[in-house]
Inverse folding.
DNA sequence: AGTGTCGCCTGAATGC
DNA sequence: TGCATTCAGGCGACAC
């Protein structure tokens, strides 16, 4: 049955966790519902996320207006009228559900925060693993606090290009895979898009960061931007689809070239390689040993 | 300061 | 069938 008052923003599969494109998609999906809306009521079902929800969260936000949303790295920033910001991170398993009519809201396991708006809509933050966070800061201070204080540049920013990345990694001995996951070097990348970008660039994930040449770094920055833009585009089309379905679609209708593709044939033309999985600092890395050097 | 490891947490998948 | 084990990983804390 057509169900237009339920919009689901989530990862289709457990291993698809939110990285920059997913967070951007969630933010865009929320925007129309929350922009310039006053919060009439707010339910907090549990405070004990890994980073606890502050005790005054409800009091600080009730009857305040959400002016705008922005994104920084993997965080969504709710800019409130009275100078607060509420900062949301989806962690590993965080999801947001939106109900155009809050009467249609049905509680689910792990619904930690439910925000009711004056329009009659509501949205829900659900996070089974509780690795996410939802906390408060001030509109003038948040940018220089906590995870944002030393956070690296936005990869989709026009000013982020090869020279910046090269400067940041040229003294690093750590594998390029680890460097790209480091939010101090560049913001918003996670395991999936790092694997995909390195694959497209033909760069081996174990390469010490300081061995990347400027041309390789240029290829890498271009591919990082491309892979993120494509994912955001796919997320956007999925969002539109969601409004006419029961939420059975995921963010992406296409798969990944290497991520979770261990043992499959490399998709590069003429390459006879098979995708391998290795573990780097406790995380899976997927790559083609034949065309990544 | 840079680098690596651990713990947090739940649910899906796997093993016996 | 049922119970135990393994695995997934962003981020902060910590050790070296």
């Amino acid at each position: 049955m057509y169900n237009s008052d339920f919009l689901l923003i989530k990862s289709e599969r457990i291993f698809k966790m939110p990285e920059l494109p997913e967070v951007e998609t969630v933010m865009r999906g929320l925007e129309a519902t929350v922009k310039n809306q006053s919060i009439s009521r707010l339910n907090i079902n549990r405070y004990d996320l890994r980073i606890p929800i502050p005790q005054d969260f409800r009091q600080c936000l009730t009857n305040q207006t959400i002016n705008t949303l922005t994104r920084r790295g993997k965080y969504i920033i709710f800019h409130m009228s009275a100078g607060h910001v509420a900062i949301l991170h989806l962690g590993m398993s965080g999801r947001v559900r939106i109900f155009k009519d809050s009467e249609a809201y049905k509680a689910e396991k792990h619904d930690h925060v439910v925000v009711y708006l004056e329009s009659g809509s509501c949205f829900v933050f659900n996070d089974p693993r509780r690795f996410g966070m939802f906390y408060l800061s001030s509109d003038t201070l948040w940018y220089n606090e906590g995870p944002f204080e030393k956070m690296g540049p936005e990869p989709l920013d026009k000013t982020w290009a090869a020279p910046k990345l090269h400067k940041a990694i040229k003294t690093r001995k750590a594998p390029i895979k680890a460097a790209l996951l480091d939010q101090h070097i560049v913001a918003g990348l996670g395991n999936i898009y790092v694997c995909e970008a390195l694959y497209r660039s033909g760069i081996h994930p174990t390469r010490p960061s300081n061995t990347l040449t400027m041309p390789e770094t240029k290829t890498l920055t271009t591919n990082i931007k491309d892979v993120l833009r494509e994912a955001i585009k796919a997320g956007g089309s999925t969002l539109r689809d969601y409004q006419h379905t029961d939420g059975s679609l995921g963010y992406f209708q296409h798969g990944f070239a290497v991520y979770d593709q261990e043992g499959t044939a490399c998709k590069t033309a003429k390459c006879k390689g098979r995708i391998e999985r290795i573990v780097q600092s406790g995380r899976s890395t997927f790559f083609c040993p034949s065309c990544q050097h």
Summary: Residues 14-15, 17-19, 50-51, 74, 89-93, 129, 131-133, 147, 181, 183, 190-191, 282-284 of chain A lie near DNA strand C (CB under 10 Å from a C1'). The two ends of chain A are 51 Å apart (CA to CA). Residues 1-7, 9-15, 243-253 of chain A have pLDDT under 50 and may be disordered.
